Amino acid sequence: MSSAGLNLAQLEAVNHLGGPCLVLAGAGSGKTRVITHKIARLIQAGLEANRIAAITFTNKAAAEMRERAGHLVGRDARKVLICTFHALGVRLLREDGAALGLKPQFSILDTDDITSLLKDCGSTTDAATARQWQWTISAWKSAGLNGAAALAQARDEAERSTALIMQRYEERLVAYQAVDFDDLIALPLKLLREHDAVRERWQQKMGHVLVDEYQDTNATQYELLKLLVGERARFTAVGDDDQSIYGWRGATLDNLKRLPQDYPQLKVIKLEQNYRSTSAILRAANNVIGPNPKLFPKTLWSELGEGEPVRVVDCDNEEHEAERAVARIQSLRANSAHKEWRDFAILYRANHQARAFEQSLRRAQIPYKVSGGQSFFDKAEIRDLCAWLRLLVNNDDDPAFLRSATTPKRGIGHTTLQQLGGFATQYKLSLFEALFSHSLPSAVSNRAIGALHEFGRQVNELEYRARHTVGHEAARAFLNEWLKDIGYEQHLYDNEDNEKVAAARWTNVMEFCDWVAGRCGGQIEDAAGTSTETERKTLLEVVQTIALISTLSEREQDQNVVTLSTLHASKGLEWPHVVLVGVNEGLLPFKVDDDELPGEVQQQRIQEERRLMYVGITRAQRTLAVSWLKRRKKGRESVPGAASRFIAEMALDKETVKEDPREKLKALRAEFAQRAKAASDTQKAQA
Ligand SMILES: Nc1ncnc2c1ncn2[C@@H]1O[C@H](COP(=O)(O)OP(=O)(O)OP(=O)(O)O)[C@@H](O)[C@H]1O
Ligand SMILES: [Mg+2]
Fold this sequence. Notes:
single chain; alpha/beta; Rossmann fold; Arc Repressor Mutant, subunit A; 4 domains; 7-stranded parallel β-sheet; 6-stranded parallel β-sheet; 21 strands; binds adenosine-5'-triphosphate; binds magnesium ion
């Protein structure tokens, strides 16, 4: 390994091998790089690769680190245990869970499994209630409480009854030999606490433990780490208190404060040079994080030059914002050194915000992926409809055939499809072609043949009509009729015991149909009532492009594509060009001015939102645009929107931010100053 590409402070951290080390530094200062280089250094110093563990925050981060470590040390990197806290928990339990009565092949429940199990334990059919319990139980578990302990400290009837449900839930898990996500930390902790031999063996094995994104660990993870490293305390933690954004999941900055107390020999190293962003971007970040209380003071600087000012963009509504973001990406791609789609990211506060951007990107035929949440086009109901549409365009699309022939159910069963499939393979036909053959195997019952023929007839008819449907109104009517024909709404309600969920799915379906129909052109009226004539296309033509894109983006996963991501999921990553969207009061910061909450809680929330904004800004390497909505959707309504206070703060010094016309920014600053004054007046009055 060479020491190339590390500054002195980084080298110091990498070379501190004998005892505990904490690297505390701002965004983009090379903390993650310290971890990968330290893995290499440890191996070079003679530590066996399989005695090194590096803990990351997400599986994706783990994969990336494995790759980087691979470049530095070659094949040995594969033996290093690089994983998330949860995956480490799985490892501990698979190897030593027997001490807790757990079989090595225990199963891990996902969120849906847990909801239905809790419904059972609490004798309810309401998924929302069950999810509420799940949330509470999870919070208790992260705080280190089991059902009995939660019961003992319950403050009211509601907590008592949830604690009782939790106890029942725990019994079931034991009976099923299953664990939930929180158990993957809590049980290994119990294991190491209560079983001396197991603990000693693991402490012996762990030559060095490295932890990235340390600021987001919670109390149980802290304990687990402590037991794992033991007295020798050979570990390296890296983190940034300004990027702690998982307070709502129990992460606590106390872990940062406890470290020097629990380990007096702790070596603390600060990094101040940022290698990621231009000075303009860094200043914007520093301005935003400025008002937060400081755990450890630090100043970030960069040698990458001033760069472009941060661009503030005001938008009429969500669609307008999406159009502008896409236009910006296209023009930057044409005019900057960064020509790859992967150089761009659009970041937002909440998953549901992705939708407008997905639609605009599709329209512009730009490949993208949605990380940290489900893509609108990946939702089951939208995939169902796309399967139908794909089949209209291409009758030989067998996967589309299988999905649409059985969704909704229409008397075509698994056996029938298997027989049809066997026949089709034998004669080299597509399923759709096979369906009309006169020599179908005799094993296929007459009733099944009837159902198959009816399905084929329907597809043919739909295809014929789609070919002749032109303009958005006709297309919309066609789509409505089609959904009715196949009984899709009923299908949603039949397959979902929670009506609200079914209704939400149906809303998605309607939105999808509006979108498809809108592509067919004609007289289109915008929100302001102005109508324009756009080019008319047949529904089939439109569906052809949509079908193409949906298969395209499936193949392009994780490749050269624009990233759409929540701010939470963007942690640790970087892109040359970032557009931060929906930077509105009420979105970012998310509803913090809840008068029913005590002032102190509101303060904490706004501080966490501020850190989230800081994380977002510091993802950008070369350019950053921040957009906000003058009107935004709230439920079904459109309400006036206000720019986030963070925009005004970012613009504290004039060079950092650019907006046209400049007047708007002045007004924004004045408004912000007024709001800040009003807030401090109220505080004084309360005091
Ligand atoms: N000494 C260095 N010389 C050159 N480039 C560096 C150096 N240290 C880090 N970098 C580069 O700077 C960028 C940011 O580094 P890294 O991702 O490790 O920062 P970080 O502190 O982990 O950031 P975050 O807080 O966002 O997780 C990366 O592209 C990395 O390769
Ligand atoms: Mg990092």
